[in-house]
Amino acid sequence: MWDAFDPKDWESIPFITGRIATEEDVKAGIAVFYLPNGGIACDADLPICAIHVDEETNERTPVVIIQAEQSGNLVTLGLRYIDGGNGVCTYDEVELLQEPNHEFGI
User: Fold this and answer.
1) pLDDT given for residue 1 in this prediction
2) Which residues are bridge partners to 75 per DSSP?
3) What does the chain look like in DSSP terms, one character per residue?
4) pLDDT of residue 95 exceeding 90
5) Residue 89's pLDDT is what?
6) CA-based angle 56:95:92, to the nearest 5?
7) What are φ and ψ of residue 11, in 5° steps?
8) Which letter, b or e, does each residue of 29-49 get, where b requires 16 or more Cβ atoms within 10 Å of its Cβ?
């Protein structure tokens, strides 16, 4: 489900927007996480390209954000990695891009 993808096809990555994710959405591959105690969906134009910056190593990894939800003051993002897999981070850990940049390798 979380296979690698061609960065040129980033706009076709399944995503969720306009509502909070459910466990079924995660199983279907349109969301990375769900908050059992609820949250609110962020008003975000998804999918969107970004660079995830590791807080400890400063390593930069190109990602596609497929989910954005807020719980309290924390905005949590669901990410897809080009080489496969997924991740979760906070809004403060990414640099949003208008489109893929040179770090996406295209």
Assistant:
1) 78
2) 70
3) ------GGGGGGS----SS---HHHHHHTS-S---TT--EE----SSEEEEEE-TTT--EEEEEEEEEEEETTEEEEEEEETTS-EEEEEGGGEEE-SS--GGGT-
4) yes
5) 97
6) 60
7) -70, -15
8) bbbbbbeeeebeebebebbbb
Q: What is the mean pLDDT of residues 8-31?
A: 96
CA 8 to chain centre: 16
Is 31:78 a contact under the CB 8 Å cutoff?
A: yes
pTM score of the predicted model: 0.95
Burial of 93 by CB count in 10 Å (0-12 exposed, 13-18 middle, 19+ buried)?
middle
For 39-86, how does the pLDDT look when each residue is reduced to its tens digit (9 = 90+)? 899 999 999 999 999 999 999 999 999 999 999 999 999 999 999 999
Tokens of 19: 């509502």
The C-alpha angle with vertex 14 and arms to 8 and 20, in degrees rounded to 5, equals: 140
Interatomic CA distance for residues 61 and 84, integer angstroms: 12
